[in-house]
UniProtKB/TrEMBL annotation:
Residues 1-23 form the signal peptide. The keyword Signal applies. It comes from the Bacteria. This is Lipoprotein. The keyword Signal applies. The lineage of its organism: Bacteria, Pseudomonadati, Bacteroidota, Sphingobacteriia, Sphingobacteriales. Keywords: Signal.
């Protein structure tokens, strides 16, 4: 355990919490939402993303293009291209004491990113404010999916140079993570943290990729957060992203 630095130890505890957070996570929100998050000033030029034609979309047969999901608009407008409504929500729970609500896509739908078929997903959840229904975040989770690296490649193709990247490799001889019992992880694990700015759509992508080379398991979490929503700064803090992506 002495081999673990303080920061790495914190990451080892915080990251599983981030990755495990989903539409069923319930916590008490702050009474006064954080003021509008400032749009990040960057000279990075976001590559043009081809608009998705969903005028004749059939959710029963067509794959939902996740790269076509646009935040900073009411939930009804976000769902309209896929011929879905809030009544198609797979999450039947209601947040009584919170200022936001969740829409969970059915995991049985087909999904793709650009032209890459994703296959089975663990979850895809859009978060929106109760008062004006504006969407401020969506989170995608893949687990033990052979297409994780392909999705990472597509993200890079869309947004180009990242604004943050960190790679952590953990081995039995040099453990960088701890297991559920707080003991040094002995498996060979590679974790990559990447952040991209989507200036065109006023959003930031926080991507966590984890591959266990010993057990042949993998996990990919993509958290997309609006840069102009009044909920943005609070959500970044709620997901502990500032501490991890630093």
């Amino acid at each position: 355990m002495k081999q673990l630095t303080k920061k790495t130890f914190l990451m080892a505890i915080i990251l599983p919490l981030i990755i495990s957070c989903n539409a069923e996570t319930k916590r008490t929100a702050k009474d006064n939402p954080t003021q509008n998050a400032k749009e990040i000033d960057t000279t990075q030029v976001t590559k043009e993303i081809k608009e998705i034609d969903t005028t004749s979309f059939n959710v029963k047969t067509d794959a939902i293009p996740i790269n076509g999901i646009k935040l900073n608009q009411p939930l009804a407008i976000l769902l309209k291209p896929y011929n879905l409504t809030k009544d198609d929500n797979s999450n039947l729970e209601y947040n009584v004491n919170l200022d936001y609500e969740e829409f969970a896509f059915d995991v049985k739908y087909k999904y793709k990113y650009n032209d890459v078929a994703i296959g089975k997903i663990k979850s895809l959840v859009v978060f929106y404010l109760k008062n004006d229904k504006s969407t401020f975040c969506y989170e995608l989770e893949l687990e033990n999916n052979p297409n994780c690296k392909k999705i990472l490649a597509e993200l890079k193709n869309n947004f180009g140079k990242n604004t943050f990247y960190k790679k952590v490799e953990s081995t039995k001889a040099r453990p960088a993570f701890v297991d559920n019992n707080g003991e040094p992880e002995t498996d060979h694990i590679i974790q990559e943290l990447t952040k991209w700015n989507d200036d065109k759509n006023k959003a930031n992508y926080y991507v966590i990729s984890k591959e266990n080379l010993t057990t042949k398991e993998n996990k990919l979490t993509v958290i997309v957060i609006s840069t102009i929503s009044k909920k943005s700064a609070e959500w970044i803090d709620y997901r502990s992203l500032k501490m991890v992506f630093d």
